[in-house]
Amino acid sequence: MSEINVTPLVDVMLVLVVIFIITAPLLASSIRLDLPKSDAAQPGELPSFVTVVVDKAGQLFFDDKPVTSAELAQALQGAAKANPATEVQLRADQSVPYGQVVEVMGEAQKAGLNRIGFVAEAPQAPASR
Q1: Nearest of 30, 15, 36, 19 to residue 94 by alpha carbon
Q2: By CB neighbour count within 10 A (0-12 exposed, 13-18 middle, 19+ buried), where does 31 fall?
Q3: Proportion of the chain above pLDDT 70, given as a percent
Q4: Domain harbouring 53, CATH code
Q5: Which pTM was predicted?
Q6: Count of CA atoms in the C-beta half-sphere (13 A) of 15
Q7: Strand 87-92's sheet: what is its strand order?
Q8: How many domains does the chain have?
Q9: Any domain includes 107
């Protein structure tokens, strides 16, 4: 028999593709938010950043770990000591009151982190017929 049977190879590759399709969304942030839409929303690549999330319930997260206000202040101060040029990427659900977002921004500025980026999603294009 001089032919190579590629059927097992194709089967293995299809299984790997299915596994990657299923796990890829799990590699993104695990906190579900309804982010506001903006035409200017584009992913940015910065070497040093921390993520602060405020979900619908007002719960705070620092790098996807739930924290209290006091713990957030300490974590931001630690990030500022490690690198004062660290950017804070603020992800807040659109239903969160503006005052709570300002409080988080104030904590970041008190810690010495003045670079704050607001994370938003690009609006979906209307479906053409």
Answers
A1: 36
A2: middle
A3: 81
A4: 3.30.420.270
A5: 0.60
A6: 6
A7: 65-67, 60-62, 49-54, 87-92, 115-118
A8: 1
A9: yes
